């Protein structure tokens, strides 16, 4: 049996970050990182379309936590210990400069996730972390003094153990065996499958500022909406999928959404259309897109309001005006399923947050057992927030494990 001071299970972002910081803070420690695959950091590699969305340019903890459907309350304290500015500094001190894009996402200036991977591998080697691949965890036993692990490549023991395996059902089962409660995992970041004439044949069209509600619920979000080949995506939809993950899973991803394409009330929109009827009396409704909507979307909504391509503004009757108003402010679409958002695999679910001390990221049930990343029931919307949770948790756990 190989003995270590600290063993970290999981060769992803949180695992490497914890291993490096633990070794840096206490170089005397003998540290092993166990990864079940042939190589680690695969989620880092594909993140952000291969550019790695390292974090998000939000520097106020109270604002940052609002991007976490699960974990908002628990992360406030940890973000005061280590957050965005600390992440930026950490990478810059190791020669990796980050840049901020218009939407707040932050990437390495190289635009390559390999930059982050190379940094981690180099730092792990520098601090003599034993990175062991093809080591799948089979069992965990807690003795009076140690943690004993059986892997596919042999047995290990350590004084302190960090689990950073992400959303891994097999590891969750092992943790249940140790008495931990696991919140049932469900997908958290996905696009909506919608078959509807109003969005057929116009993939790529973006409505820049919409409001979306799930009918018969309190769920809503706002932001850009992208029409795709299979339905709808972009931040307005992705935020809704994250905050509604559990409710939408209960509905088996069969529900209705109401889209307000112009973020105006029904009555305000109707008055505006009546004014347009006067101002553009001789022009055709179809050709004269309004409310800064893309022309192709405007065309679809006009036709869905029983208005022909030849109808002039002056000829609109009351029912047509009201129908167009409804399409602009209260358009209902039936969602029939979900699709994975790019390469993002984010799951709601994991170790019950009440069973973790968020000052240290240590288990409240077992001394010297720590967690970091998506093994916990914490997830975020897209934009670098899931990685920030990984960095913060891993750093705090490493700080405590190194003592």
Structural description of this entry:
- It is a single chain.
- With about 400 residues, the protein is an alpha+beta fold.
- It has helices at about 15-25, 40-50, 60-65, 70-80, 85-90, 115-125, 170-175, 235-245, 245-250, 265-280, 295-305, 320-330, 385-400, and strands at about 1-10, 30-35, 55, 100, 105-110, 130, 135-140, 145-150, 155-165, 180-185, 190-195, 205-215, 220-225, 230-235, 255-260, 330-340, 345-350, 355, 360-365, 370.
- Strands 1, 2, 6, 7, 8, 9 and 20 form a 7-stranded mixed beta sheet that branches. The protein has a 6-stranded antiparallel beta barrel with strand order 11-14-13-12-15-16.
- Helix 10 (about 265-280) packs across helix 12 (about 320-330).
- It is elongated.
- The chain has 13 helices and 20 strands.
- It has 2 domains: about 1-185 and about 345-400, 3-Layer(bba) Sandwich (FAD/NAD(P)-binding domain), CATH 3.50.50.60; about 190-340, no CATH class.
What CATH architecture label of the largest domain applies? Answer: 3-Layer(bba) Sandwich
Q: What structural class is derived from the secondary structure elements?
A: alpha+beta
Q: Give the C-level CATH assignment of the largest domain.
A: Alpha Beta
Overall 3D geometry?
elongated
User: How helical, in percent, are the residues?
Assistant: 25-40%
Portion in strands: 25-35%
What would you report as the Rg, rounded to the nearest angstrom? 25 Å
Q: Main traits of this protein?
A:
20 strands; six-stranded antiparallel barrel; 2 domains; 13 helices; seven-stranded mixed β-sheet
């Amino acid at each position: 049996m190989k003995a270590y001071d600290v063993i970290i299970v999981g060769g992803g972002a949180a695992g490497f970050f914890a291993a490096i910081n633990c070794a840096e803070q206490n170089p005397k420690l003998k540290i092993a990182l166990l990864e079940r695959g042939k190589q680690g950091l695969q989620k880092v590699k594909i993140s952000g379309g291969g550019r790695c969305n390292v974090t998000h340019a939000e520097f106020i903890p109270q604002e940052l936590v609002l991007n976490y459907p699960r974990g908002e309350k628990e992360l406030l304290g940890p973000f005061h210990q280590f957050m965005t500015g600390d992440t930026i500094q950490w990478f810059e001190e190791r020669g990796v400069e980050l840049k901020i894009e218009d939407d707040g996402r932050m990437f390495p200036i190289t635009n390559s996730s390999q930059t982050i991977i190379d940094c981690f591998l180099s730092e792990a080697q520098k601090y003599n972390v034993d990175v062991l691949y093809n080591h799948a965890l089979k069992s965990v036993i807690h003795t009076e003094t140690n943690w004993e692990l059986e892997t596919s490549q042999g047995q290990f023991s350590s004084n302190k153990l960090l689990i950073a395996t992400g959303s891994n059902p097999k590891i969750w089962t092992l943790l249940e065996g140790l008495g931990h409660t696991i919140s049932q995992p469900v997908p958290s970041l996905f696009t909506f499958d919608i078959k509807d004439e109003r969005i057929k044949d116009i993939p790529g069209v973006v409505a820049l500022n919409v409001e979306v509600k799930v009918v018969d619920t309190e769920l809503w979000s706002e932001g850009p909406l992208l029409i795709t080949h299979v339905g709808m995506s972009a931040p307005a939809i992705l935020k809704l999928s994250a905050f509604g993950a559990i409710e939408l899973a209960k509905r088996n991803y069969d529900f209705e959404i109401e889209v307000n394409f112009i973020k105006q009330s029904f009555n305000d929109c109707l008055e505006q259309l009546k004014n347009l009827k006067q101002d553009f009396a001789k022009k055709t409704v179809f050709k004269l897109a309004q409310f800064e909507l893309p022309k192709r979307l405007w065309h679809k909504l006009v036709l869905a309001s029983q208005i022909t391509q030849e109808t002039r503004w002056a000829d609109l009757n009351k029912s047509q005006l009201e129908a167009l108003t409804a399409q602009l402010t209260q358009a209902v679409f039936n969602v029939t399923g979900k699709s994975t958002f790019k390469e993002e695999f984010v799951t709601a679910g994991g170790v019950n947050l009440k069973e973790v001390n968020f000052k240290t990221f240590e288990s409240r049930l077992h001394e010297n057992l720590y967690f970091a990343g998506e093994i916990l029931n914490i997830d975020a919307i897209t934009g670098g927030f899931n990685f920030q949770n990984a960095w913060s948790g891993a750093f705090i756990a490493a700080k405590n494990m190194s003592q």
